Predict the 3D structure of the following.
Amino acid sequence: LPVQSAITQPRPGAAVPPGELTVKGYAWSGGGREVVRVDVSLDGGRTWRAAELAGERAAPGRAWAWVLWELRAPAV
C-alpha cells in the first residue's frame, strides 16, 4: 500500500504566526513495509519538503506499523 499520513499539529483552523512553522504527524504503510520518507507540501502541492522521521527504527527486514514525523519550515 502507498504510505498514508495524518497531520496532528497544527490543528485544523489554528492561527499560524509568521516565521517558522512546525508541522507534526504520523505515517503508516501496509504489507510490513517500513515508512522511509514523508513529503509535506505547505503550498497546496506546488512544492514539497521531506519531513524528519522520529522515534525507533525497525530492524532490517522488519517494519513498525507507523512512524512519527516532523517538519520545520518558514510559514507561507
Observations:
- Strands lie at 4-9, 20-28, 39-40, 49-50, 52-54, 66-74.
